[in-house]
Design goal:
83 residues; 5 helices; single chain; mainly alpha
Length: 83
């Protein structure tokens, strides 16, 4: 899966799930602020990403994911790895 595929898929999923216009998902935009995430919806976000891409996101890694670019990078670097 290419980075472009990941970006398109992530943006489509998040736009639908959190009812936010995907044009707001710029690489440097803050994920939590853009999606208006509280602690419960942050858990939903992690669950969606883990389920879709079959990856685990430990809490320590989650703290490093601030922007959409961070999220895309994380998925790209972990997708296809087991566990």
């Amino acid at each position: 899966m290419t980075r472009e595929n990941i970006i398109e898929q992530v943006n489509a999923i998040l736009a639908e799930e959190f009812e936010v216009d995907s044009t707001l998902f710029t690489p440097d935009a803050n994920v939590k602020e853009t999606l208006s995430l509280d602690s419960l919806s942050l858990v939903d976000l992690v669950a969606i990403i883990q389920h879709t891409y079959k990856i685990k996101i430990p809490v320590t890694d989650l703290q490093q994911i601030q922007t959409f670019n961070n999220l895309y990078d994380y998925i790209e670097s972990h997708f296809g790895q087991n566990g």
